[in-house]
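Next up, sample data.

:::
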Amino acid sequence: MSFKRTPSHLKFVNKKRIIQCIKECSSISRAEIASKLGLSKPTVSQLVDELIYEKWVVEKGSGESSSQGGRRPIQLFFNERKAFIIGADIGGTNVKIVLCDLNGNILAETSFSTTTYLQSGLLKQMAFETDRLITKNQIAKERILGMGVGIPGITQTKSGLVIEAPSLGWIQYPFIAEARRYFDFPIYVDNDVNAAALGEQWLGNAKNKRNVLFIAVGTGIGSGIILNNQLYRGASSAAGEIGYMVTNKDEMKREFKPIFHRYGYLESVAGGKSIGAHFTRAVQNDPEHALYEQAKSSELVGEEAFLFAKKGDVVATAVIDEALEHLAYAIVNATSLLNPEIVILGGGVLHSAAYILPRIQEIVDPYLPSLVEITTSRLGDNAGVLGAVSLFLREHESILNVHDEGDFL
């Protein structure tokens, strides 16, 4: 991407560089900024004064002489309360909405049932809950920069069109066009796992890493891919559908049938619902098992399989180990192709991380050309909403949007 290097554009880029430097290094002096960025002191001083006037930056300290002699430099701090951003994570079960400052600190949050409002007006309820958060926290509406939204489906960020979100029953749904009826600030939307990957890179275990693979393992399995600091969406916004990866060719030869409608192979052998289904069948074949009677009348869930595996239950351990092998092979394949600095696991697996991680790492390591760090999400249940905030900051053109603008020329 080329940029026209006019004086006004250079000034704007330098203001971005300075505000980013202050965000990352608070507190910092004007002289330190000039040294770090290779800018002249007069240029830095002028642009910092503008940022202070615009309330993006605050200064502290008097510049008076210290006891050792010489003047203390006035320190500059980023004003994270200059404006606020809304983050929303629309799940098949619940919608979570947060009000954040510019550093990603959650000031308030709310949630409501997705299914309750899906038919009667999901966006209308989101607007109501958002207004309530803003009013309750006594924030003027003009100080809301906008909102980022994560959606469980294939989503086009540029057009705001949801190609398909099965859990919501949306096909070719014009999300942004509909949202404009209820919100009067900018909105950006993306797949929920893509958003979670951005959140983890912004504030979580992938911070300061430019190549990241985030894998969400829950009911299904999806991934978000960041390559060279850019979210990789693919030709049709469907990149990251790791749940469709095949980890056993022999089963595919026998005419693969997904365990649930529209599930991919990996989801059908390692997803939460599939683990529950496989555990149920295994227990039904073992009359001596503690859950035998329960399994005859109702399907067991993945959480029960993990719980019993942790206790050393032979049946549960076999089911879990089989699922983890498939997940590990998928990680081997994806990691060999993408060469990320880190692989982060999120979703329902977080509750069994201590059990899962050592087993996956043990399987993965011998197969990789170079070792990769595998860990779990630091942000946990907030990865989606904070990722939605990060999505907004990356997509919305403002003085805060600094990602790879021509590498700052």
Observations:
- Residues 405-409 have pLDDT under 50 and may be disordered.
- The radius of gyration is 24 Å.
